[in-house]
């Protein structure tokens, strides 16, 4: 596929609405990002229904209580209120009613309040609690960009400029489709090389399914605002996913001495080798025996699954940063990518080698389901595939939302170990589809 083909398809307005959309809004990405900040109060500047839907969406996906609040804008206040009153009153009511003091207020907008033009930056002068604002209108971008914009805003507004670095300190910037366990494993790998490691946002200790006390009122675990303030002394920032480049650039503006390593994804042998090779170069030490063992297991898994995956056709839908990793891993063992249907346009789509790559919805994607052996998509594809006998393709659930399965927060497809498990899961699903119908 040529690059100009994906650009043309991605920007084409081929119909006036989305049917069975796979795209989710920017405010949803921002809300999830603020859940990765310790003792944060995520506050959506929107009508109550917007926050309620987002809360239910993540509650069902993670099977956890979600700390999310709303300014409860109505049609009347949208016209008469300048924005300050509803925001300040909401913060006062929430904190007094629940008797807690958040370490951070995370305010993000929606299409209604963006169209209204509220000054969410100026209202911060009247808030005594540390405050972060981010503009995330529904009418542009998607969940991936909302997450990335929030990470950038946290660095822009709270990280202090520095003139020196700590060489052994690393900041990881994971993209939105990475699970809490995947972030945890990336941090653990960096720490095994002797690095002090932070992640922003950090869902590994806030949305990881750990049973704790007083869940649901504030974001539990995650990175603290005090840690965000001193990120300017990191020796290295590692961005995973094309969407996270803007957050890395924001940190480099705080201290140009920071080195930046970027990876479009960390799935499969090649990208895992590049990532671990970069850590080895910085520390001049070899990885642990466990890492080497998992590399060999991935190589063996690639051999074991080659015949099943190499004779199969796939359709992938989801956020761009997730799609590129899955596509490259499947292709590394001979899989044929019939179509990649992305939620939004991203430059990373141009590097995907597939028969078709475009921005669309599940109505567009189902055109390619007939000739596919396996569809990798979210929960909403299940209704299409299983509604009648028209499609024989199997379904592997990935991305948001997944209401069908438990343990989404503890699934890992990254690095050698995750790639090994992913290939076996794909091959077993294909065997079930081809041999058992």
Helix content: 40-55%
Q: Which stretches of 5+ consecutive residues score pLDDT under 50?
A: 1-5, 7-13
Termini separation (Å)? 32 Å
CATH class of the largest domain: Alpha Beta
| SS-derived structural category | alpha/beta
How do the strands line up in the largest sheet? 11-10-9-12-13
Quickly count the helices. 16
The rough form would be described as globular
The fraction of residues assigned to DSSP E strands is: 15-25%
Helix-strand pattern: HHEHEHHEHEHEHEHEHEHHEHEEHEHEH
Total beta strand runs: 13
Plain-language structure description:
The protein is an alpha/beta fold and 437 residues long. The chain has three domains: 3-12 and 291-436, Rossmann fold, CATH 3.40.50; 26-141, Rossmann fold, CATH 3.40.50.1980; 166-287, Nitrogenase molybdenum iron protein domain (Rossmann fold, 3-Layer(aba) Sandwich), CATH 3.40.50.1980. It contains 16 helices and 13 strands. The protein has a five-stranded parallel beta sheet with strand order 11-10-9-12-13. Strands 2-1-3-4 form a four-stranded parallel beta sheet, sandwiched between helices. A four-stranded parallel beta sheet has the order 6-5-7-8, sandwiched between helices. The longest helix has 22 residues, at 289-310. The chain is globular, with a radius of gyration of 22 Å. The protein starts with a helix and ends with a helix. The model is unreliable at 1-5 and 7-13 (pLDDT under 50).
């Amino acid at each position: 596929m040529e690059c100009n083909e994906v650009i043309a398809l991605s920007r084409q307005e081929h119909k006036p609405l989305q049917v069975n959309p796979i795209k989710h809004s920017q405010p949803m990405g921002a809300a999830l990002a603020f859940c990765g900040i310790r003792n944060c109060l995520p506050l959506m500047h929107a009508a109550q229904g917007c926050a309620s839907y987002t809360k239910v969406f993540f509650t069902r996906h993670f099977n956890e209580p979600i700390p999310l609040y709303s300014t409860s804008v109505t049609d009347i206040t949208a016209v008469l209120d300048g924005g300050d009153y509803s925001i300040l009153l909401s913060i006062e009511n929430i904190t007094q009613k629940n008797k807690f003091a958040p370490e951070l207020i995370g305010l993000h907008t929606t299409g209604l309040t963006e169209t209204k033009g509220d000054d969410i930056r100026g209202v911060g002068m009247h808030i005594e609690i540390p405050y972060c604002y981010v503009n995330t209108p529904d009418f542009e971008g998607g969940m991936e960009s909302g997450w990335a914009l929030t990470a950038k805003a946290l660095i822009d507004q709270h990280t202090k400029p520095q003139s020196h670095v700590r060489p052994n300190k690393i900041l990881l910037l994971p993209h939105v489709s990475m699970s809490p366990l995947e972030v945890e494993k990336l941090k653990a790998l960096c720490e095994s090389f002797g690095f002090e490691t932070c992640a922003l946002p950090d869902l590994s200790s806030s949305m990881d399914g750990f049973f704790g006390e007083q869940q649901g009122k504030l974001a539990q675990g995650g990175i603290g605002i005090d840690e965000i303030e001193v990120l300017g002394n990191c020796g290295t920032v590692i961005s995973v996913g094309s969407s996270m480049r803007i957050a890395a650039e924001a940190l480099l503006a705080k201290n140009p001495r920071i080195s930046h390593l970027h990876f479009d994804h960390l799935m499969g042998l090649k990208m895992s080798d590049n990532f671990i090779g970069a850590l080895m170069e910085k520390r001049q030490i070899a990885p642990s025996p466990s890492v080497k063992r998992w590399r060999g297991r991935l190589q063996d898994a690639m051999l074991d699954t080659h015949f099943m995956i190499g004779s199969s056709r796939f359709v992938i839908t989801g956020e761009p940063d997730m799609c590129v990793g899955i596509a490259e891993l499947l292709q590394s063992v001979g899989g044929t990518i019939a179509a990649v249907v992305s939620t939004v346009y991203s430059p990373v789509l141009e590097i995907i080698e597939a028969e078709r790559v475009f921005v669309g919805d599940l109505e567009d994607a189902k055109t390619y389901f007939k000739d596919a052996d396996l569809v990798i998509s979210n929960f909403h594809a299940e209704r299409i595939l299983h509604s009648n006998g028209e499609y024989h393709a199997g379904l592997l659930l990935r991305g948001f939302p997944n209401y069908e399965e438990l343990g989404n927060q503890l699934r890992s497809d990254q690095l050698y170990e995750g790639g090994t498990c992913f290939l076996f899961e794909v091959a077993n699903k294909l065997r079930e589809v081809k041999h058992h119908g």
